Amino acid sequence: MINALESSSTRPYLIRALYEWCTDNGFTPYVAVQVDDTVQVPREYVKNGEIVLNISFDATSSLKLGNDFIEFKARFAGTAREISVPVGRVIAIYARENGQGMAFPAPAPAAVPAIEDHSPVTASRTSLRDTSRGTEGDGSRVVHLVSGEASADDAAATTTAGATPSDPEDPPRPPTNGGARPSLKRIK
Fold it and tell me: What pTM does this model have?
């Protein structure tokens, strides 16, 4: 009998399941990937060591969601490219329209080559960073997916890095479905 430590990773199975859920419900599946030398993507679209790829049927051809790699062909600015992503480098899969999906633990810490901006990036990050403000090394800038416009409740829920919320027992509330497209909001 195989124990849990000897069994294969559940990540590729969860990616396939969420891909199928997205397509069955008419959503656009996106994968967020932490880029290193093992990832074959157009480097000019990589931002801060990460890239988000549309893996919908309409955006790809020859899509293969394997146990080890996600492989497909896609066009970037009109140029056909072969894309190959090790499943272990996928940090999230979600529906573009509502942000529902799943995030995965970041790959094992290893130096990721600097891309475009020549700043060192480490693979130990577990959340997406807001690079519109601050610097890459500023770990206090975390991006959360929220729906529609910011409410007073959202503003009250934010805290400064190092500070504790007034009641740590209360879990954060999910965004309300106001029909608006999800957007990123920086949380300090």
Answer: 0.57
